[in-house]
Structures are given as structure tokens and as C-alpha cells.
Amino acid sequence: MRKVVDVRQAAWSVTVHAEYASDAGVVRHTQVFTPVEDGIHVEESAELPDALADVARVGSVFETVAGLDLMEWYGQGHWESYPDRAFGAPVGHHSVPVDELFTPYLRPQESGGRHGVRHLTLSAPDATGLTVVLDEPRQVCVTRYRAEDLTAVGHHDEVVPRAGCVVHLDAAHRGLGTASCGPDTSPSYLVPPGVHRWSWTLRTL
Asked: Which of 14, 28, 74, 94 has a CA between 20 and 30 Å from the CA of residue 199?
């Protein structure tokens, strides 16, 4: 559960300190919001306790309004890619409808990640939308589902897509490994405890 510890306002920015409590300890999260032309710049850090030595991801998530149905990005693609499954995905400019980013595996689960993304745009047919510029190549996922939407069901025909987009911008993302039919994820692709830092800029088109 998230608890806001402190909010501080400076001349041109607002800093929010929050904590997330879990059985493994407290995650400390800091966000600094600074307005920029046509948008906002966000600097973030998250400190994971030592007991959280193997988490799925660390990063930001937000949701959009309905109608932003096309994703364009510069990074690896155009198909699904992850930190330990990225060598076959060339870096370039890619464009895919949001509904085609999701991969329908046998059991509903999070999918559709794109690795090494530098910037992305989500747009409507009238060319309105938003753009995100990342501080460095990051793991990104744009989907119609929250994680809990997928874990709550056993079959794809039970999943109801959201009208808007759920956008994950990950500072660190666990590799997939092959644990279902082979070795688990290599230690070099695990998300370690400690401090993770990332930043991104959100602008309207």
C-alpha cells in the first residue's frame, strides 16, 4: 500500500516522497515533477530493501484516455522483446496498433513488452495524443490491461480490454528465462535490490 510521506514545493518543481509497505520491507519512492513546454518532466528513484532481490519490474505506470490507438516508437521491435530476449529485435522506428501489441499466450499474462525504447508516441486518428521521451533506452509496455485484469481470469475470452492504454515505463525489468521448460532467468537479468533511478518527459502532441 502506498503512503505519501512528504510533498515539497520549490520554485519550479514539486517533490513527492512515498513509501510502499510489503512483507519484505518498505520501498521508498521519490518523484520530482517539473513543468516543461507542453508537458512535464518526471525524475524518479526507488529504493528496494535487500529482501526484494527478485522483483518483476521497477518503473512508472500510468493510464491514458480512450482513443489513443496507435503506438509509434524508436527502439527494438517491431515484435515483443525483453532484456534477455532482444537480440532478434532490430532497433528502428516502428508503428503498431495498440491492440496488436499484446501477445495472446495460452494463459492470460502480461506480454507485449518492447525493449530499448528511446521515445514513443500514442496517437488518435486526428493526430492528437501524447509523446514520452525516456532518459535512456528502457523497457516499455503499452496494453489494454492492468496486471490484475489478467491474473484474475483463466481464459482470454474472460478478459475485458480497457478503453484507454496502460503504459509501463520500466527502469529495470526482469528477464523471462525459460523456467517453464528449462533454466530460470540468468542472474545478470534479475532486478537487484538497492536504488534505481530513471526519468522521462511527457508531452501532448
From this structure: 94
CATH number, position 20? 2.70.98.10
Q: What is the CA radius of gyration of the chain?
A: 17
In sequence order, the β-bridge partners of residue 42 are 33, 200
Rounded alpha-carbon distances, angstroms, from residue 180 to 31, 96, 128, 176: 37, 29, 42, 10
Number of domains in the chain: 1
- The C-alpha cell 499484446 sits at 102
Cell numbers linked to 125: 486518428
Three-state secondary structure readout of 56-109: CEEEEEEECCCCCCEEEEEEECCCCCECCECCCCCEEEEEEEHHHCCCCCCCCC
Please give the span between the terminal C-alpha atoms of the chain, in angstroms, as a whole number.
34
Cα 80 from Cα 113, distance rounded (Å): 5
Beta bridge partners of 123: 70, 129
Q: pLDDT tens-digit profile of 66-117?
A: 999 999 999 999 999 999 989 889 999 999 999 999 988 888 888 999 999 9
Query: What letter represents residue 13's amino acid?
Result: S
Domain around 198: 2-204
Tell me the pTM: 0.94
